[in-house]
Every structure is written in structure tokens, then in C-alpha cells.
Amino acid sequence: MKKLLAIALALVMVLSLSTAAFADDAIVEVDEPMEWSFACSATDNTCWADMGRQFGKYLSDRTGGKITVTVYASDALTSGNQQEGIQAVIDGSTDMCAHSNLIMSGFDQRLNVVSLPFIFESTDDVDALLGAGGAGYEALAPIVEGLGLHLLGIAENGFRHVTNSKKEITSPEDMVGMKIRIPNTAVLTYAYGDWGANWQIANWSEVYTALQQGTYDGQENPLPTADGGSISEVNKFCTYWTGVYDCIFFCMNQDLYDSLSPELQALVDEAGAWAAAQQRQLEREGDQQVIDKWTAAGVKFTYLNDDQVKAFQEGASKVAEEWAATCVKDYRFTEDQMSSLIDVFTK
Cα 285–245–83 angle (5° rounding)? Predict the structure, then answer.
């Protein structure tokens, strides 16, 4: 009942945010024109970049054109380096950014809590926890702000679906020994290791060729990302599941945010929550488009039943404990810090 209530409240919140841009057209006074820079790791034709543009339009409309936002996709301001793209916002040379929790975790490992296996059953769960005001959002915002960033919204990279060139994956046994490329993050190394995979770490730019040559059997990513990498050309099996989730932190330099009037801060927060909610919806629509495209190209999609999901959940039952122990040992967080954070997402 508690979970259903949280989901219902989240849906009401998303619907209200979807109309917020048109519900109040009062102009917020801004003394001097401001042009802000927004950097993201995805390309200019993605909903990541669209989020920056929508955020900018929202602010421009409500400030009489006094605030504009320029989007720099593919982390163009830092020559494509995502870590440096985040650091530039922390330092203040860039005003805003949008990056995956898997990249942001390089600055604080706790941000990978959202990628623990099977903590979300559906996108409704995601909205309930990570939408503005959700318990997960409230738990993560202070961590982000501890980096010198103000959290504007949590957007979506999506559930990370597994593809491979060998066979359908319906159980952990099917993964045993399979060479699957994953990003360099402890949560995923523990998860895929516990499922029996021979996981491999490599730069995304190397993955297509490695799959083509048989160096790896498979990879895991949100579908739009995998489609952008032409994965359907080299992998013909896809397990579509809710095993691992990947979010996007939409952030602003904290000093810049603190310099704004209370009225403008409220508008910025409103615009950030709205733009993030819009991005999540666009990302989900993109999933279905890729499914249709890949199915036509001969990719076989596998959807797990409840018993099959349970087998993967049981196989990954120790991941949270393993990851928390690593964070305590290697990153000097306390056991209480880790357990209280994990509880928000798992209880």
C-alpha cells in the first residue's frame, strides 16, 4: 500500500509538472541579462540536449528573455571528457551539466545507489523515488550539493538492457562465462560477477569493434545508447528487463544558484523539475522506437517472467552488501551512511 501510494503521488506530481510551464506566465524580474552554458555527454540530437533547450526556453519565457541557455552537447567544452565536464561545473567555468550517475560516481560513489539490481520494478517506481520531492531525490540531493552542485532534477538514461550474440538470456546460468562489456563501476562488476558473467571493462568507443570481432559476446546499456552504437548489427539477442537502472543528474554550479534571488531560485528549480520530467518521458518513448527498429532488423527480445526475475534477484542478493563494504573500505564512508542510503531505495 505504501508503494502504491508513493507511485500515485508521483504520477500526480509529474502531471502537475507537465502543465507547470503553461499554468503561470508571470514574469520574474531579472536585473541584468544572463547567458548560461549547459553541457551534457550525449549528442545534440538526443533528449539530453533537448532537456537543456527546454529548460532554457522555460526560463526565457518567464524572464522576458533575460535568461538564455546555450547547449554544448558531447561535452564539447571539455573536448568530450565527461569527468572534466562535471568538474567544469563544480569549478564554475560551465554553469550546468547533465551526466549519468555512473560518471558522477567518480566524484562520490554513493550516487551509484540507483544502479543496485532490481530496486525499481517499473518506471512508476522511478518517478516515485527520483521525481522532485521523492524520497530518493531527497536522499541524493545533499550528496550532489556536497560536490558544489545544486541539483535541478533527476532525468533518465534508463534501464540497462543486456544484448549478446550467443543466445537468449533468461537465467543467471545463461550468463555464466559470457563475456559482457560493462562500464567501470563497482555496482555493475559485483552484479554481473554474481550472475556468473565474465564481465569486461572497456571504453564505449571500443565496444562495437570488440563485439564484431568476438572479443566480447555482449554488452548492457539503455536501448537508445545501444542503438546509437549500432549494437543491433552485431548482437541479435536482447534481454529487456529492469535489472539495472541509470539516471542523469541535472546540476547547476552551487555558487551561481546561491547568487540568484529567492524568486529566481524558485523559478530555476521549477524549470529543472519540469525539464527533467519531460526528458524521462522522451527517453521512454525512445525505448519503444528502438524495440520496433531492432525487431525489424532481426533482434530477438526476451522478456522475463516473475520466476526468472526472482532467480536474477536472488543471484544479486549480496550486491548491496558488497558495494557498501567497498564504499566503507575504499572511500571511507561510514556503515551507517551506506545502510541508511541503501534503505531508502530497497525498503
Answer: 100
The total of other beta-carbon atoms located within 10 Å of residue 196's CB is: 16
| Residue pLDDT, tens place only, 106-138 | 999 999 999 999 999 999 999 999 999 999 999
Range of the domain at 186: 161-243+288-346
Query: Do 114 and 257 have their domain in common?
Result: yes
For strands 179-182 and 198-201, give the pairing.
parallel
Same domain flag for 277 and 342: no
Q: Which DSSP string corresponds to 56-109?
A: HHHHHHHTTT-EEEEEEGGGGGGTT-HHHHHHHHHHTSSSEEEEEHHHHTTT-G
pTM metric for this prediction: 0.90
The closest of 131, 151, 115 to 6, measured between CA atoms, is: 131
Rounded distance between C-alpha atoms, residue 2 and residue 8, angstroms: 10
Task: Write the DSSP symbol of residue 233.
Answer: G
Q: What are phi and psi of 70, to 5 degrees?
A: -105, 130
